[in-house]
Amino acid sequence: MNDKLAGLSQTQLDAHWMPYTGNRQFKRDPRMITAADGCYFTSADGRQIFDGLSGLWTCGAGHNRKEIAKAINQQLETLDFAPSFQFGHPGSFKLAERITRLMPEGLNRVFFTNSGSEAVETSLKIARAYWRKRGLASKTKLIGRSKGYHGVNFGGVSVGGIGANRAIYGPALSTAHLPHTLLPENRFSRGQPEYGAHLAESLLEIIELHDASNIAAVIVEPMAGSAGILPPPEGYLQRLRDICEQHQILLIFDEVITAFGRLGTATGAELFGVVPDIINIAKQLTNGVIPMGATVVQQTIYETFMQQGGADYQLELPHGYTYSAHPVACAAALATLELLERDNLFKHSAELAYLLEEYIHQLSNLPLVYDIRNCGLAAALTIERAPGEPLLHPFRIALKMWEKGFYVRYSGDTIQLGMPFITRREEIDGLVNALAESVLEVA
Ligand code: PLP
């Protein structure tokens, strides 16, 4: 028996259509994970694999945290489910208030979802409905950004800017896109590039073309993650904020990756000093243990819906999910936020970020490495394309890493890193050394 299969039959392997995965390759050569603890996964063939991406940017506090497991178990034994529509349970209100303490001032109303994608859809729907409630129903167009990632549902794909995620799905919502901020002049810059704030001016061109009276919102990741760690140029986000303000356009920050410590702060808004109207969160909110996301809005937005809501038993927003604010997810999130605070993990993350920056830029002279970027405890390498097979090199590098005992993400032409906030210095060193070897082996 091939122990890489964890005892699964071929029929079982075939039955699962895996997300964002080359299914045929995976099923030929599975990378099966059977356990996790701290910063390590256990693979089906019994190896310890360092988790170089905190799961999927989810598990910053490390795996198998007893505090979270205990809270989940207690919740399960007390209240396993409560209807999310028209009835409530205390956990969601406690959690909502706890979240608002970590958000920029004014963002203090929380709508719960089950994923980042759902948080994105929620924010886009709220933005459109908000203007309608304000008597400005023509403000419907949504502005995204090239290389942006906002999940997989139709709204998110429409504002998203990664071509491969859009190409095969046919017409999307009415959108326009800002240019991305990945400038060749900024190759190998550390943290936020100094140059590039002028790219925000493109929003003025979009406004000129479509007119602000037709535009509901601009959505950007303060630091674009999925396209390969694109920190915002200095001054860029503030300029977007100012233009949105001047033209009555809502600014949405998609902080599904950046919220709760990845940048060493509670949010990207905090780190970059720019306050949007809406923030989307997910992933680190429950340390990845239970699916959960949320859309956090400025109180003024919430108040508009309340004031325009009709009789008080009527729905102000006909929107929500069966599992919105699931009691078990709320328990997991409350325990996670408690743990992040108790163990000072935002600070740990910020301290490790300096080390990651120092180590990762040592790879700049390697063959195949076209660019290196970092921001907070996140970094990415852009890898030169193999002739005719643009995505092959990153895939091969990531497989080499897996063989060497490291999990990193390969996506498009990038390799992405985002280790847990509890990583030790030697582990970052080890990962970066293994990455250097892997790149050299593939080159
Ligand atoms: N938005 C951003 C910025 C993300 O990075 C992601 C996922 O990586 C999403 C939305 C989608 O989240 P989910 O996969 O939980 O639906």
UniProtKB/TrEMBL annotation:
<dbReference type="InterPro" id="IPR015424">
    <property type="entry name" value="PyrdxlP-dep_Trfase"/>
</dbReference>
<dbReference type="InterPro" id="IPR015422">
    <property type="entry name" value="PyrdxlP-dep_Trfase_small"/>
</dbReference>
<dbReference type="GO" id="GO:0008483">
    <property type="term" value="F:transaminase activity"/>
</dbReference>
<dbReference type="Pfam" id="PF00202">
    <property type="entry name" value="Aminotran_3"/>
</dbReference>
<keyword id="KW-0032">Aminotransferase</keyword>
<protein>
    <submittedName>
        <fullName>Aspartate aminotransferase family protein</fullName>
    </submittedName>
</protein>
<dbReference type="InterPro" id="IPR005814">
    <property type="entry name" value="Aminotrans_3"/>
</dbReference>
<keyword id="KW-0663">Pyridoxal phosphate</keyword>
<dbReference type="InterPro" id="IPR049704">
    <property type="entry name" value="Aminotrans_3_PPA_site"/>
</dbReference>
<keyword id="KW-0808">Transferase</keyword>
<dbReference type="InterPro" id="IPR015421">
    <property type="entry name" value="PyrdxlP-dep_Trfase_major"/>
</dbReference>
<comment type="similarity">
    <text>Belongs to the class-III pyridoxal-phosphate-dependent aminotransferase family.</text>
</comment>
